[in-house]
Amino acid sequence: MQPQPGQRILDACAAPGGKTAHLLERCPHASVHAIDVDPQRLQRVEENLSRLGLSAQLLCADAADTERWWDGKPFDRILIDAPCTGSGVVRRHPDIKWLRRDSDPEQLAQTQLKLLQRLWPLLAPGGRLIYTTCSVFRAENEGVMGRFVDELQHDQPGQARPWRPTDAGDERLHGVQVLPGDNDEDGFYYASVERAAVR
Ligand SMILES: C[S@@+](CC[C@H](N)C(=O)[O-])C[C@H]1O[C@@H](n2cnc3c(N)ncnc32)[C@H](O)[C@@H]1O
Fold this sequence. Notes:
This protein is an alpha/beta fold. It is built from six helices and nine strands, in the order E-H-E-H-E-H-E-H-H-E-H-E-E-E-E.
């Protein structure tokens, strides 16, 4: 995310707040807006931030329903740590294998794509959006990001460019996939898109 002091940052799927807290620890003078659709889980964000002596603007809402909650001021950074199958963390949560249904990856992919489509317009020129999941399924990762980037290139040519981080993991056409067991980490996917700066 490379947050900078004074930036307006949206953490769109924030609960229980691990990444919200990390962002604030990295950059205490950023203005972080943390949203989650689940009120009980949002409560955990509040507890975790308060335990760490951090603060963010918290909002319980469907992040995709921007007409309901957005004040019209663009964000410099947007993090979408999207709801996903959790297939990358099965070794720590083995019940995931029993709880998931065959239809889940495609259904979740629709939700993930919707979050990207609805939140992209909230990004400031020169801003950066990061999309992450703890899934290893292509349908939720490169599948979603590929569809999103194709749409952007079609509808807003020249307005978006993938940004390639130089961190660990296997580089894919869109984004980076970490597989469970790589450096004893969980499965994780991340991709980033930057909005062209206005000249
Ligand atoms: C993978 S978890 C986020 C983990 C969190 N970023 C962290 O690091 O602690 C996904 C979260 O997205 C929330 N969520 C699902 N759909 C949402 C939506 N439409 N708008 C906002 N939050 C949503 C879920 O309630 C869940 O807490």
